[in-house]
Amino acid sequence: MTGAETRGDLREPRDHYLWELRPYFRQVAGQLVLGSLCGIMMNTAVVLPAILLGRAIDAVHAFARGEAGPDAVTAAAVAYLLATLATEAPRVGKRWWLMTANARIRASLRADCLRGVLRWPMERLHRTPVGDLMSRIIGDVEVLGVGVREFTIETWDTVLFSVSLVVAMLVYDAPLAALALLPVPVALLLSHASGRWVQRRTTAAREANASLTAAVQEQLAGVRVLRLFGRTATAVERVAALSASFAAANLAAVRLKGGLQPVYTALVTGGVVFVVWLGGIRVVEGALSLGSFVAFLELYLRFVNRGFRIPQLVNSVQTGGVAYGRLRTLLAPPLPVAGEPPLASFRPSRVTGLESGARYNGAAAPPSAAPAALAFQAVRFRYPGAAGLALDGVTLDVAPGALVGVTGPVGAGKSALARAALALYHLEAGRVLLDGCDVTSLAGAGVAARAGYLPQDGYLFSGTVRENVLLGESPGPSADRGGTPEDGTLGRALALASLEDDVRAFPDGLDTQIGELGVRVSGGQRQRISLARAVAVPEVTGAQPGLLVLDDPFSAVDVDTEVRIVGALREAFGPAAPHEHRATILLCSHRLASFPLADRVVVLDHGRVAEDGTHEALVRAGGLYARIYAAQRRAEGDVGAPLEAERQGGVPAMAGTAGDIR
User: How large a percentage of the chain has pLDDT more than 90?
Assistant: First the structure.
């Protein structure tokens, strides 16, 4: 992300961030109410131990002079113990309710940050480092959580606590209390004045953390390349330099906060001189009993033990504001509490929307059982920051149910066409229609309900084969726990991707762990798992995929497997399939072995449609497509006859392959 964009993220909010966070406070309103009630009880009783300690001392003195019996001393001691219990028991409840409420707020903030990022336009994701997002969602939420925690907890632990003690001291001796508390306003003014320094250094520390996280994430993702080329030392040096910068920025922030703390403590504690001096004089003069003096001194010392936290509270809230400034542009609107079950806000382990199964994808379009119609109308598209156009005035109508192959030289615009079809990026001009609707109005859940997508770099997650194909959705009766595919959505998807034999060969079948990015399976298996996902996910979410967009799906599989997969797709979704199962297929590939099976072939060159027609017609025309096809046939062997036979005579029976099993 550029510096200007970063500064834009940190613009001052119109309202104080604690006010903007009120939807999150509503989510935990029950816990906040209980914690606050405990806080009020604690701070109502907080003056009692000091007062009753003074009375106990006076009772002991009276007993020593023979003016009171042992029962009075015992009663005073018991009263002191009960007062201590009345103070500490509510403190436990207060801390429990408020701390768990803070944890729930942080969990909701992280979920909403991720939900917001998932809704970002692709151009913004294109510019933003993943490490920077990780730093914000993890680190800045923690910093913000500290500010919220200080506000919710220290309001009772420090502010009301201190107010109660101050009121009690004023009742005992107002002039002495006023003198003792004289330095406190100075400490508060200093905390406010130092806020700009705290914010500046906190911002520098958080930005340094983001840079370090982004670098570490990038180096770890490319660790195999670094080791292969012997550049591990360079990677370590880069991370070490960024670590040093982060350490310096973090140290500067800690040094400032650590330096302010003793100043606050010294200012707040300075009044003890007046307490000892004037209080001692009043005891000697008889204006104040020894017990009252001890009670006043105990009240003051308890205030001193917490009073310095008031200016620190101000600085912590200021630091939380910096973190919130970095999170504001990530956050999706908080989930409402209207749909939550009764008393949900009192439950310390609940995250709003999680247990109720709330979906974060938005409202999906009604599922359709018809193949999709796709139209490109004078589409101009440019990748963010690119100098040239990826698509330049492309106009193309794709009939419902057609299998259209899209090819062309490297950089011709094949992937751009696939991404434009799904509204992954904003267009510079023109529009794309899906079933007559502009895809930009269906972006997200609307497109997902109608389309399956296999990107050029099909991403696999840590987990099992089953989890990667279904992306967390329930598969229904598609596979047993042993991992053997059966009839159903999952089994059908595996068959179409020619993965059945591979899954049977895996040690745990569908429940085999494939590792981060699928490192435990071959490149061809990774690609076919992604293909199975493109077919399965729309179905398990309740929709029949009316459009399949496959972007270079066969770069890691052999020619026989490629032909078998395309033939299976044509059989499952083509004209011979029942109407409710038919789908339009947009196959973008530089590999042409399966293109004789396509109903139509579109050739792109420099972002424009160079040729358009059937495979046979384009081969006879002797143009760009014919030259590419002939070159690939020479390189891969003469596969034309079998392909033509398949096109004319049907698709052979499905068979698995172990050609790319490790």
Answer: 13
Tell me: do 239 and 378 sit in the same domain.
no
User: Quick check: is 572 in a domain?
Assistant: no
- Provide the domain limits for residue 68: 16-338
pLDDT, tens digit, 9 for 90 and up, residues 454-468: 888 778 888 888 888
| Tokens representing residue 50 in the block | 């000091």
Q: Which residues pair with 429 in a beta bridge?
A: 380
DSSP state of 13: P
Chain mean pLDDT for the chain: 79
Is 398 within a domain?
yes
CA dist., res. 511 & res. 475, Å (int): 13
**Residue 388 contacts by C-beta under 8 Å, 6 or more apart in sequence?**
382, 607
Residue 47 C-beta-side C-alpha neighbours within 13 Å: 18
Global pTM value: 0.69
Length of the chain: 662
Q: Are 529 and 458 in contact (CB under 8 A)?
A: yes
Quick one: 288 and 395 in the same domain?
no
DSSP 179-220: HHTTTHHHHHHHHHHTHHHHHHHHHHHHHHHHHHHHHHHHHH
Question: What are the backbone angles phi and psi of residue 284, rounded to the nearest 5°?
Answer: -60, -40
199 and 318 Cβ atoms separated by less than 8 Å: yes
What is the rounded CA–CA span in Å between residue 91 and residue 143? 24
User: 396 forms bridges with which residues in the sheet?
Assistant: 376
CATH number at residue 402: 3.40.50.300
Q: Are 296 and 275 in contact (CB under 8 A)?
A: yes
Which helix (H) or strand (E) segment holds residue 429: the answer is strand 429-434
Residue range 385-436, pLDDT digits in tens: 788 899 999 999 999 989 999 999 988 999 999 989 888 888 889 999 888 8
- CA dist 58 and 471 (Å) reads 73
The answer to whether 184 and 307 have CB atoms below 8 angstroms apart is yes
Local structure of residue 136 (DSSP, 8 states): I
The pair of three-digit structure tokens given for residue 241, joined into one six-digit string: 């330099």
For tokens 């816990």, name the residue.
31
Cβ atoms of 547 and 584 within 8 Å: the answer is yes
Look at strands 437-438 and 451-454 and give their pairing. Answer: unpaired
Asked if the structure places residue 347 within a domain, the reply is no
Residues 112 and 196 in one domain: yes
Do both 22 and 163 map to the same domain? yes
How far apart CA 514 and CA 521 sit, in angstroms, is: 6
Domain total for the chain? 2
d(CA 205, CA 511): 43
The Cα–Cα gap between 132 and 215 comes to: 9
User: DSSP secondary structure string, 329-398?
Assistant: TTPPPPPPSTTSPTTGGG-TT--TTTTTT--SS-PPPPP--SPPPEEEEEEEE--TT-SS-SEEEEEEEE
Token pair 């910093």: residue: 143
